[in-house]
Amino acid sequence: LSKINCYKMLQDISSLPLSSTILFAILATACVFAIGVLVFQCTSCCKNTDLYKNFVLDGDWNQSITESQSTANITASQADNRTMTEFGMLPPPNDASISMNNEATGIRSTAGSSHDLAAIVQQKPENFLRPRMRLSFELVPKSAGVILLPNLLHMDRKHLFFLSELGQAWFGPVIDAECNRYGETLRSRVIVRLLSNEASVELAEKDRLHFLADIQAYKECVDPCVLKLMGLCTTAEPYLAVMETTLTDLKSYLRSLITDGGHRCLEDSLALRFASQACRGLAVLNEKGFIYQDIGARNCRLTDNLVVKIGDYGCTEVEHRDDYVLLEGQLIPLRWLAPENFNFNTEESNGSLKVKDHSLETNVWSMGVVLLEVFTMASQPLSGYTDEQLVNHLTSLTASKSAAELQSFLVSALTADSEKFACQYKSTSQLWQLQELRNRCWSSERPSAGQLFDQIDKLFKLASSTSPAVSSTAAY
């Protein structure tokens, strides 16, 4: 059929006057030439590393970046009082001339100290917390591994522009940046995770798999209450993961509301809304087969519209140091763990406190602690014990192999925190029911994250119906 159509078209052209035929030939030749030039220029641009340079900053940005010049190995000759050369995004692919400095945040380089928090943060995965999110063994076969989706999230790193470094994570620096993916005039703020290159090929491959496994949950769990993955740069090294930016984390927000005279409480419907959104985010993750390894208000991000999104950028251990206890080279959020997280096998633990991976059930326990944080304006759980006292007491309870006694201790201590620090909320039936749901999270028979969300969301809708000011901002 196509041959017949082409033949007819040639017949039509041959029937045209000579001048028209010549004009048609000239236009066709010009189009072919223009396409060839365009392809040649695109190919040249892809090979041109200058694409990543010569980003001129004004004085204010220049000053802020000059002060943190150790963030990248940029020499003083590259900057003056008003301008600084900039690489499109930190750094261009396979550019050995630019490397990120692990001490960019001013963290002391004391990697030899086994008790220094900053040193542990900069260690690699085998000496650090497990990935923030991992595939649930209950829902996903172990053989599934890391399954990358089609490159719908692929982003060219030339659209990213460095602003400052937020902190260090096990994988490398976490960057505050701007993105002009949708046009130069539509720049938006983003957070970028950068996977630093490893000298060892074996370690580099292990880190890549670890990095991609951590990102996988954000790729698959698209929901208003889960931190959004906006793009990936994985066609060249270093790998970049581009995340949406947020106002702050829930813990910092709650603590910012505490006045000198005591606690300032949230509106009842706002407290219920925060609880509902946090539970919704966890429910989405769990239903997709992911288990969060570090649930806490510190890892619930808050947008400027006061929407809670579960997720983190990877550097929470630096931002909230007091939430973690150092146990044999690992940073553990001890105060948020369920009884099942502790290892009662004294032969394996050698008399020391050992913790295990989270499960769907322990995720719900930790979410109950988040609900406690909302009620107490983010007071520290198990506040009646110092870290040392808590470790000693938990060690003795696990050595006695009494799971019931351990659970009784944790529930009693958490309930005491609720009574001691809880704000004087109005005695609405919704809040009383929320506290009952929170207590169910600490029982032996717990609801699933999805069931917890369904029940709390109903309470929120009842409360917000009498509080228009809050309910009007409740849309995700």
UniProtKB/TrEMBL annotation:
TM ranges: 21-40
UniProt-listed Pfam families: PK_Tyr_Ser-Thr
Single Gene Ontology MF annotation: ATP binding
Keywords assigned: Membrane, Transmembrane, Transmembrane helix
PANTHER family: CHROMATIN MODIFICATION-RELATED PROTEIN EAF1, SERINE/THREONINE-PROTEIN KINASE LMTK1
SUPFAM superfamilies attached to this UniProt entry: Protein kinase-like (PK-like)
Domain Protein kinase stretches: 160-460
Full protein name: Protein kinase domain-containing protein
